[in-house]
Give the backbone structure.
Amino acid sequence: MNLKNIMRGFIVYFVLVLVVSAIVSYLYSLVVHGQGVTDWGSSFRLAFIFGVALPIVGEFERKKGIR
């Protein structure tokens, strides 16, 4: 596994998931509760989890495909 690819993937996935989950959280709060509030805690947790998991899985798949 290439650590450079994993770190780059972490940054990309972290930013993407953070932005998308913040927008979804805001829209959900706006539609359901009538007030637009973003749940930043859940957004950061979700972004961190996907930021760690997805690049590692991608590296395993890339390594598996070479054989």
